[in-house]
């Protein structure tokens, strides 16, 4: 296991659908970009490169109602592997700060718990894909699953994917798994209260990032 010395940092954004991860990420990038310039890398899962975006299109296509749960889990892991090799790893080797919209915790919550494959089984399967590459920091955007889905219905009708249309019971299982991950990994996963107005969410997320990554975002980072 392991990828050798990595001087960059990987921060992942996690939470139920409609929690506001992408909205917060965009605002955080606007805040950090002037300071970090090309040391900042912004990406997403599934996706982030041509191959993984092609896999994303297959997974999220609402026409693919026949997709088997384990096929789905394997496709997410395959997209992740390609994303790591092509985007994340080179950035971490190059001392960059990678902000990634979703990562392995999504697979544990959605496929492990939501689909019922098993959280440990999905974690183990992903070790083959990630070779143990774990985020330095994960922000968990905590909002009730029903609130997140309502936000999507109200504001994002044009972008509803195959996972979004699952039953509320599926999304509650996902949320419960996320809360278990939060409790089990207190050093890595930090809670952001995503039920607040977006500006407050962004402020809280930035405070956590600054406290957890002082070399990049604290006073040390400002002189770089
Ligand atoms: N704090 C907030 N309060 C109210 N509405 C919000 C908040 N944050 C985001 N929204 C709105 O909710 C919708 C979903 O937000 P966004 O796409 O950022 O969520 P997400 O967590 O990235 O969702 P998904 O994982 O499904 O892509 C958007 O229309 C956005 O404008
Ligand atoms: C990485 C990953 C994602 N998912 C789900 C979560 C969302 O419903 C979609 C991605 O859409 P988004 O608008 O970019 O959030 O895919 C998953 O089930 N498993 C995963 O590993």
UniProtKB/TrEMBL annotation:
GO cellular component: a single term: cytosol
Catalysed reactions, as listed in the record: dTMP + ATP = dTDP + ADP
Domain Thymidylate kinase-like: 13-204
Binding positions for ATP per the UniProt entry: 15-22
A single MF term (Gene Ontology): dTMP kinase activity
One GO biological process term: dTDP biosynthetic process
EC numbers: 2.7.4.9
Keywords: ATP-binding, Kinase, Nucleotide biosynthesis, Nucleotide-binding, Transferase
InterPro entries per record: P-loop_NTPase (IPR027417), Thymidylate_kin-like_dom (IPR039430), Thymidylate_kin_CS (IPR018095), Thymidylate_kinase (IPR018094)
Pfam families: Thymidylate_kin
NCBIfam families registered for this protein in UniProt: DTMP_kinase
Family assignment from sequence similarity: Belongs to the thymidylate kinase family.
PANTHER family named among the record's database cross-references: THYMIDYLATE KINASE, UMP-CMP KINASE 2, MITOCHONDRIAL
Primary role: Phosphorylation of dTMP to form dTDP in both de novo and salvage pathways of dTTP synthesis.
Full protein name: Thymidylate kinase
Protein encoded by which gene: tmk
